[in-house]
Amino acid sequence: MANLRAGLIGLGMMGRHHARVLASLEGVDLVAVADPGGDQHGVAAGRPVHDSVEQLIAAGLDYCAVAVPTVYHEEVGLALAAAGVHAIIEKPLAQDIASARRIAQAFADQGLVGAVGHIERYNPALQSARQRLEQGELGTVYQIITRRQGPFPGRIADVGVVKDLATHDIDLTAWVTQQAFASVAARTAHKSGREHEDLIAVVGSLTDGTVTNHLVNWLSPLKERVTIVTGEKGTFVADTLTADLTFYANGSVRTTWDDVQQFRGVSEGDVVRYAIAKPEPLRVEHENFRDAVLGRPADIVTMEQGLTTVVVAEAMIESANTGTTIDIKDHS
């Protein structure tokens, strides 16, 4: 069977990583790349470098990875769908709900495989956490907390921290728990002098009543990527920077010291950091998308799921702008 012919448009920071993985992906040939600004980082490695998605399509593609700025996702995505090219588009799917809906509909109408690059789903720590939750190792889930903060990325100019970073937490929270967001209440701040928000704090609820809390900013010298899941049997802490998953068990030893017992909820039990395999998330993401294009069983972030994430992101922004709690079912 001939290898799939893949293309890549957008040769910035993420584009460089996509090119590296696609160039070494089994069953795939990266045949051409495109960027209006050229190949400034030298990722083409002798392959043709085009200026536009139309030129890239003319190279004869089976599928394409899209890593252009968010404001161009709709233009590029619709062109690929019209040409019958499967595509994986970097997150978020689009800059607003209407654009995301048009992209998702275009791929569905053409019967194409469309996916969104929410890479955190493929982080080994979160993959393991979801599997363990499905097996009931934490019992009923009570709360999910995410913290995603770090220095300001000068390369991001077309969206704020909600659509650039918080979309990771929206998607991973829904995916790990297999529950949709029901409502959100948020506050934002603008501290860097730009049009878009650079800090957000969100309290949310999922359809099963799980409480969520998300802290996201571009204003911290500390880079942090942490997901904390608390349930009836203890807590999982997933550090997606190191791909470590740690379990803090509720204790089974009765506390007899009254002065300690009176201010503690559950008692402290064993702490276990799991030894888990740590493949590169981006490679796993591409392997799954390749398999989906080939009609094999695969776990991809569908465009419908990507659309839902954009809906929740916009609800967060509306909540911050209005000072109200937003019900997601009324926002979509």
TrEMBL record:
Pfam families linked: GFO_IDH_MocA, GFO_IDH_MocA_C
InterPro entries per the UniProt record, alphabetical: Gfo/Idh/MocA-like_OxRdtase_C, Gfo/Idh/MocA-like_OxRdtase_N, Gfo/Idh/MocA_Oxidoreductases, NAD(P)-bd_dom_sf
Top-level taxon: Bacteria
Residues covered by the Gfo/Idh/MocA-like oxidoreductase N-terminal domain: 5-118
UniProt domain Gfo/Idh/MocA-like oxidoreductase C-terminal: residue ranges: 130-327
Entry's family note: Belongs to the Gfo/Idh/MocA family.
Identification of the protein by name: Dehydrogenase
Organism encoding this protein: Microlunatus panaciterrae
